């Protein structure tokens, strides 16, 4: 990569500045967060920015990166740099992946299509969220044709799991990412204080309402006799708005949806099937027998779990604590990375997700053994500020800063990075 992606992006910003233009999306992390906060509704901000408990896990993620300091090496020829990685037989131009983020309609109406297009323009794989606002088929058709992976939340219905994975495989996704740290929702005070769970409003369930197995489960629910002892919801203005919102988001015409009651039945069905607290290692054999795609487990933080994952037939692991949104007081993802890398011992790719804010964080993670790095909140903040363009700008800036950091630290490729390039202070 002669002249470097980072230098090109940087020069473009400065050249535009000569004509009086400044970036529409802040490049400084704190400014990006502040600008996104102003752009989002209170419900959206609580859902996107919030973490579990006192948010100590999210804080630990940031502190873990700061503990590792890069030790640059001088007088090395870094005029040409290769940022590319190969994962599961696919070559990608950078080590970045757009991590799955649900309920993007809270942030921008173009939602999942916007991030798919933004990432596609840079060759960055998008991990389609299981809790998407737009179905995977529509994202594949309208999302710019970039590489796609699919995130799976394992529901109580194995038949639904098989259907979701089959749909993703037919679309040509490169991998299935099974998120295993959300067998139940964590305690999230920001959402609780607003008494707001988007799924109850019919948000973020487009992968379900577009699925034939799920629609059959909804029909079966509606065919059952009503429980005379079930509590009836109070009729309030808020309840009416919620019902209309459900009906607008559900496939079909608003009037027909309101008359049928199917959107509300779909929400109740989703709440019944979404989480599976009894999921165990033995369940992985079911998925392995249903797809030939690479399977990664996302949420691994203990070396023993990484070993068990490989023994269970998965093809890679993603060290992640769900960006602090699940278990308060958990180990930082970066702190867990080295142990997992050692346990895997080169037998499969180990990726990192949670807490990445800039290019230096990417270098740190790769130096500690990550094969690639997932980012979520940064591009969501960009999307809140400027939609698809904002998400693209944030991803571009991350890649640009990573490229410059790689060169300034004295390296020409990811393969040259190692723990010896860092100092644990």
Outline the fold blueprint:
Layout: H1 5-18, H2 29-39, H3 42-49, H4 56-67, E1 68-70, E2 85-87, E3 90-92, E4 96-98, H5 111-120, E5 126-128, H6 136-142, E6 148-152, H7 158-170, E7 176-179, H8 189-194, H9 206-209, H10 212-223, H11 237-249, H12 254-260, H13 262-273, H14 284-290, E8 295-300, H15 303-311, E9 316-319, H16 333-344, E10 350-353, H17 359-367, E11 373-375, H18 377-408, E12 422-424
Parallel strand pairs: 4-11, 5-6, 6-7, 7-8, 8-9, 9-10, 10-11
Antiparallel strand pairs: 1-12, 2-3
Helix pairs in contact: 1-18, 2-18, 5-6, 5-18, 10-13, 11-12, 11-13, 15-16, 17-18
What would you give as the CATH superfamily of the largest domain?
Aldolase class I
- Spatial separation of the terminal alpha carbons: 33 Å
Strand content: 5-15%
| Rg, alpha carbons | 22 Å
> What can be said about the biggest beta sheet?
8 strands, parallel
The name CATH uses for the topology of the largest domain is TIM Barrel
Q: Roughly what is the average pLDDT, rounded to an integer?
A: 96
CATH architecture type of the largest domain: Alpha-Beta Barrel
Unreliably modeled segments: none
Q: Roughly how much helix do the residues carry, as a percent range?
A: 40-55%
Give the number of helices. Answer: 18
Total domains, how many? Answer: 2
Q: What is the CATH C level class of the largest domain, in words?
A: Alpha Beta
